[in-house]
Amino acid sequence: MKKHGKLFSILYIALCFLFFYVPIVVMVVFSFNSSKSLTNFSGFSLRWYTQLIEDQEIMAAVYVSVSIAIFATAIATVLGTITAIGLSKNRKVLRDTLLSINNIPIMNPDIVTAIGLMILFSSMMIAKGYVTMLLAHVAFCTPYVITSVYPKVRSLDDSLANAAMDLGATPFQTLTKVIIPSIKPGIYAGILLAFTMSFDDFVISYFVTGNGVQNISIIVYNMTKRTNPTINALSTIVIAVILVALIVGNVVPAIYNKRKEKKVKMEENVN
């Protein structure tokens, strides 16, 4: 029975992975198709990637997506980290209330958040475009950063910060030299999550943009209305960017920890 149960679990997991990733693999393969067909692979070609690079509208959308993702991630990371540290020092009732409020944008359907932000910008007479898209991305990325960083802050030993200040460190030095290095894994996770959410967003971006400003998701949506194999090439690049971000987000902290452990061992051997 146990063998059958284990075999069933393996088969179930394999089917789930096939369901999730086979369409992506097919899309990547057909991005190198020499013909316009989306079902018949007639030969290897970089035709659609060349056409993609030559399309000024798509290149402008790539610039918008990348720049907004970088700026939104940077701002959301700073705001989210500071907020998480501040929440950990508040009273339990206030802390729990603010954390519950922080979960509202995460649990809210994107369409609700999008309409709310659209009404907000319209009521404030803010012209929709690059700035409104950036503000919207910061707004929905920050709660994810708080959620990623806060558990690390809560697990941090308060005596470390107190000891640093007793030894003469200023509050800013304590923050940058003691607290932030101790919660780096949470910050890295927040950065990775915020960048991915911003780069991939469509619904909120679609409702808060204007004046011809489009990101990759909006371009892809417009391209689905007609048969255009360039969409495969564009989607493949998006997947590659997210994959690189995931690899960097996992490899860099691992390398940092290994070097740190190696340095500690060398210091112990010297002593």
SSE topology:
Layout (H helix, E strand, L loop, with lengths): L1 H29 L16 H8 L1 H33 L3 H16 L2 H14 L6 H25 L3 H9 L4 H12 L1 H17 L2 H6 L7 H8 L6 H41 L1
Helix pairs in contact: 1-12, 2-12, 3-6, 3-9, 3-11, 4-6, 6-9, 7-8, 9-12
Describe, in plain words, how this protein is organized in 3D.
There is one protein chain. This protein is mainly alpha-helical and 271 residues long. It has a domain at 67-253: MetI-like fold, CATH 1.10.3720.10. The chain has helices at 2-30, 47-54, 56-88, 92-107, 110-123, 130-154, 158-166, 171-182, 184-200, 203-208, 216-223, 230-270.
Structural class by sheet pairing and helices: mainly alpha
Report the CATH architecture of the domain at 67-253: Orthogonal Bundle
From the alpha carbons, calculate the radius of gyration and give it in angstroms.
23 Å
Question: Topology as H/E string?
Answer: HHHHHHHHHHHH
Secondary structure: helix percent: over 70%
Distance between the ends: 56 Å
Could you tell me the mean pLDDT?
82
Model regions low in confidence, pLDDT < 50 over at least 5 residues: none
Given this structure, which CATH class of the domain at 67-253 is correct?
Answer: Mainly Alpha
| Percentage of residues in DSSP E strands | under 5%
Shape field: globular
Keywords:
271 residues, mainly alpha, MetI-like fold, 0% strand
Task: Tell me briefly what this model is.
The protein has helices at residues 2-30, 47-54, 56-88, 92-107, 110-123, 130-154, 158-166, 171-182, 184-200, 203-208, 216-223, 230-270. With 271 residues, the chain is an all-alpha fold.
